[in-house]
Amino acid sequence: MRFVQAPCRQEKLATSGIQGRVMLMDGMTPPAEYLGKVQCVYIDPPFNTGEDFEFRMRVGEEGWTDGNRSLTLPAFSDRFESREEYWALLRGLVRAARSLLTESGAFFLHLDSREAPYARMICDEVFGESNFVNEIIWAYQTGGRTLKRFSRKHDTILFYQKSKKLYFNIQAVPVSRAENRSNHMKKQVDEQGRAYRTIKSGGKTYTYYDDAPVYPGDVWTDVSHLQQKDPQRTGYDTQKPVALLKRILACTTRPGDLVADLCCGSGTTLAAAMELDRQFLGLDVSRNAVSVSRKRLTDSALTVDWSFGAPGAELDAEMMPGIGFYDVKLLRYALPHQDTMGIENLDLVDQWAVGFLKDGVFYAQDLSSRLKKLPKLNTTLLLPQLRGTPAIMTVDVFGNSAVWVEAE
Ligand SMILES: C[S@@+](CC[C@H](N)C(=O)[O-])C[C@H]1O[C@@H](n2cnc3c(N)ncnc32)[C@H](O)[C@@H]1O
Q: Is residue 179 predicted with pLDDT exceeding 60?
């Protein structure tokens, strides 16, 4: 059967699970319906490095099995005409963040040592100096080193509160007591068998139990950056580790709260929110960011707002009616020859779903994506025979998404 593309503005991937939304949208202008509703906003914007960042898209079963077949696509450009242009972006994002927050909400702006001092002035201007909470130093060991100066091995995360009503629960983020914090103290064991250490200072004896929780300060050395072969890696440059975001979200939000990332990239904040049972909202201006985030978040009740349309694409599929279900089999996907870079047929498909199209919204019922743990696309999906126009949604390796209905 031949399918044709149909107009669509939004897709809904499931009805159960944590509610989440990803939107292809400028983070400076978030939707008005979220104003004053977000408990924590985290932003990891471009750092003004003057570089173009890439997204390495694995292609076909082969690419997802051994990583030997991939495409290099643009992720985002971090080039600005002037400092002023860059600061206008930061100011716009910081203002948007503040407008989204609840009165007890928290804001985190992630930068490096080059722009962080200027960003702090912008945040002081927007949030008020008295609402500055912390400058977090996230130190790591990854990346190259130089002999010309001290290697730059930290990022700076500015933490602001919307107001004095800040919700902050450090007890949600205990860290293990590092051996080197206690090895100069004398180790003893009490009657219950608990190990503790004591130290005398100023005539007083201080006792620390080895199993008692300790809490992080503002210098974080215990969260490692993603290693080259880290299974979390999506191929999207600048991706941050989930553990970093989990620490930020766990102490500033409760289960069920709404978290937003206005430059969501590969969706790390959203993935951390999903794991912690927080609702999430992610905005980004890069199609590849939306495509990567979508794939990462299919275990949630996800809504995705992006433009649909794959110019010149063709799709053949079979829809076999069974008892209560259609068996939908993906047969052929094609793009205009000059655009395919030698990639053919179903190797061009990275994600697909079957569902219903109603009033411009695609409601997915079953889906399949290529993943490291599932390199082979499942080419037959089940579609319950419900009311609505049966439809297919595809995302190809170039990030084109399209919704298809049977040709008349
Ligand atoms: C440093 S990356 C974010 C990486 C992300 N934290 C992750 O873990 O994958 C910055 C992101 O900001 C996005 N971006 C740049 N300008 C934007 C804007 N005005 N609104 C929304 N997103 C924007 C880029 O497309 C890019 O994905």
A: no
